[in-house]
Amino acid sequence: MTAPLAYQRYHEGMLARARRRARVDLQAHMALCDANYEKLFKLYPSLRAATTDGAPREFVLPVANAGITAEITILEQTPYTTLVRLTYGMHPALRSLTEPRLTVRLYHDAHSADVIEYQGQRRFAGAYDYPNEGMRAPDEKTQINALLGEYLSHCIANGMSSEAVDFSRD
User: Distance (Å, rounded) from C-alpha 35 to C-alpha 37?
Assistant: First the structure.
């Protein structure tokens, strides 16, 4: 007795889906998070000693003759971790753009920084099957951490700060 055609198609689809399951390149992801940690400390050398007074560290980024203010705000400080929020303060001429918000946890013992929230979305898995219910990319967590790296690199290369920035850290 053979299985119904619908069941066979479902089973074949499940097998194909299992074959294209996303995989995490843990070594590359951790290298990205480690590089982001170093970039954050280049921009904010006193980050570990700073307090959670709510005063952000600001950088002005020149974009199309309109300044964008990038801010790093410390939300939480513990002996082994720091939680920071990175935001853009858009110039009035650019208000139609979405203002990115990233919340990043820094792990001081591991010298690593990982995005834990992006645009109000939390709990990113290391990898997602595709397609999935939330329509997340298979490597969404890695892409968000790469975005953080690009954002920090842009701040280092183009930002202007009222405080001294340490470019000597490697």
Answer: 5
In a domain, 60, yes or no: yes
The yes-or-no verdict on residue 63 having pLDDT over 70 is: no
Within a domain: 15: no
CA distance to 53, 60, 155, per residue, from 75 (Å)? 9, 21, 20
Please list, in sequence order, all residues whose beta carbon lies within 8 angstroms of the beta carbon of residue 148, skipping any fewer than 6 positions away: 36, 86, 102, 104, 113, 115
- pLDDT of 136 reads 75
pLDDT digits (tens, 9 = 90+) for 132-155: 787 777 788 888 999 999 988 988
Q: Characterise 59 by phi-psi region: left (phi > 0), alpha (psi -120 to 50), beta (else).
A: beta
> Residue 56 corresponds to which tokens in the numbers above?
């952000």
φ, ψ of residue 67 to 5 degrees: the values are -80, 135
Between the CA atoms of 131, 132, 134 and 139, what dihedral angle is there, to the nearest 10 degrees? -70
Count of domains in the chain? 1
Range of the domain at 110: 24-161
Summarize pLDDT for 98-133 with one digit per residue, the tens: 667 899 999 999 999 999 998 877 877 777 777 778
Instruction: Give domain status of residue 14, yes or no.
Output: no
Report helix, strand or coil for 108: coil
